[in-house]
């Protein structure tokens, strides 16, 4: 695979702080009825482990399988686990793509935050089928609708800033349509000391957007019923 997260990994957690604050209470609520006795929870596209730790904190008894193909993102995730023995004992990190590895069966839940749009429209039916097949009867899938929910241009904007020590970090994003089904997010990360630009990094992500209605219809085809939608965060909960 092309590792389009290699450059982003350095900045990912700093830039994600507002996102994590918004998602945390909603994810916790959507997972509140998960029966952790039934089986593990799989986190698809675990990234640096922000979503994995949110799952771990929402479900203190759950065993978790984190699926993450990008080595740079996994490095941050494994570093996080190395520092937290309690998490390391119950989180397994699979170094592969979601469709490229045998998954645990009888999962109590499957979580997919910030990742469904990475699968193209021809592949997504296999993704939904794999989610449904991994879930125990009555298990829940929590999937994030990524913005925008359709193919549209987004002008360049500074979506967040953060400080660490003496330096200031800025994350910029812009979306450019590619065709009727997909767009490219162009990300720029800048590091400043005062007004001086010290570092500038560019990366791109090819994304196949889908809104809540489209994802709900796709999930239904795989036998998953939507039971919750949080408009503010775009988190959907499905039950098998
Ligand atoms: C925007 S990040 C989201 C990370 C994390 N879930 C979070 O909420 O912070 C998307 C992640 O999906 C991963 N990803 C891309 N293609 C994937 C695939 N085929 N299977 C599993 N993960 C994938 C990327 O490597 C990246 O780490």
How does this structure look, described?
It is a single chain. With 240 residues, this protein is an alpha/beta fold. It is 28% helix and 35% strand. The chain has helices spanning 9-30, 50-58, 71-82, 85-88, 124-134, 212-221, and strands at residues 41-44, 64-67, 91-94, 107-112, 135-144, 154-164, 167-177, 183-193, 196-207, 225-230, 235-239. A seven-stranded mixed β-sheet has the order 3-2-1-4-5-11-10, sandwiched between helices. A four-stranded antiparallel β-sheet has the order 6-7-8-9, with helices on one face. A hairpin with a 2-residue loop joins strand 6 (154-164) and strand 7 (167-177). Helix 1 runs parallel beside helix 2. The chain is globular, with a radius of gyration of 18 Å. The site of S-adenosylmethionine has 19 residues, from helix 2. S-adenosylmethionine binds at residues 5, 16, 44-47, 50-51, 67-70, 73, 97-98, 113-115, 118.
Please give the structural blueprint:
Blueprint: H1 9-30, E1 41-44, H2 50-58, E2 64-67, H3 71-82, H4 85-88, E3 91-94, E4 107-112, H5 124-134, E5 135-144, E6 154-164, E7 167-177, E8 183-193, E9 196-207, H6 212-221, E10 225-230, E11 235-239
Parallel strand pairs: 1-2, 1-4, 2-3, 4-5
Antiparallel strand pairs: 5-11, 6-7, 7-8, 8-9, 10-11
The structure holds S-adenosylmethionine.
Number of strands: 11
Strand line-up across the major sheet: 3-2-1-4-5-11-10
Alpha carbon gyration radius: 18 Å
Largest sheet: 7 strands, mixed
SSE pattern, N- to C-terminal: HEHEHHEEHEEEEEHEE
Ligand inventory reads: S-adenosylmethionine
Q: Beta-sheet strand percentage? A: 35-45%
Unreliable residue runs: none
């Amino acid at each position: 695979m092309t590792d389009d997260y290699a450059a982003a990994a350095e900045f990912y957690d700093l830039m994600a702080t507002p996102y994590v604050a918004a998602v945390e209470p909603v994810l916790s609520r959507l997972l509140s009825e998960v029966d952790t006795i039934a089986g593990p929870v799989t986190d698809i596209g675990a990234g640096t482990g922000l979503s994995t730790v949110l799952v771990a904190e929402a479900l203190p008894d759950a065993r978790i399988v984190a699926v993450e193909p990008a080595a740079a993102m996994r490095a941050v995730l494994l570093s996080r686990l190395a520092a937290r023995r309690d998490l390391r004992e119950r989180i397994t990190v699979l170094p592969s793509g979601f469709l490229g590895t045998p998954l645990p069966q009888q999962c109590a839940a499957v979580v997919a935050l910030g990742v469904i749009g990475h699968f193209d429209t021809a592949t997504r039916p296999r993704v939904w089928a794999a989610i449904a097949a991994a879930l125990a009867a009555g298990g829940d899938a929590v999937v994030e609708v990524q913005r925008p929910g359709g193919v549209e241009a987004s002008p360049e904007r500074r979506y967040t800033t953060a400080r660490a020590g003496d330096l200031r970090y800025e994350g910029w994003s812009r979306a450019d349509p590619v065709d009727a089904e997909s767009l490219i997010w162009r990300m720029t990360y800048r590091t400043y000391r005062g007004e001086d630009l010290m570092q500038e990094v560019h990366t791109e992500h090819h994304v196949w957007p889908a809104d809540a209605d489209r994802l709900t219809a796709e999930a239904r085809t795989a036998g998953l019923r939507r039971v919750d939608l949080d408009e503010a965060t775009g988190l959907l909960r499905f039950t098998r």
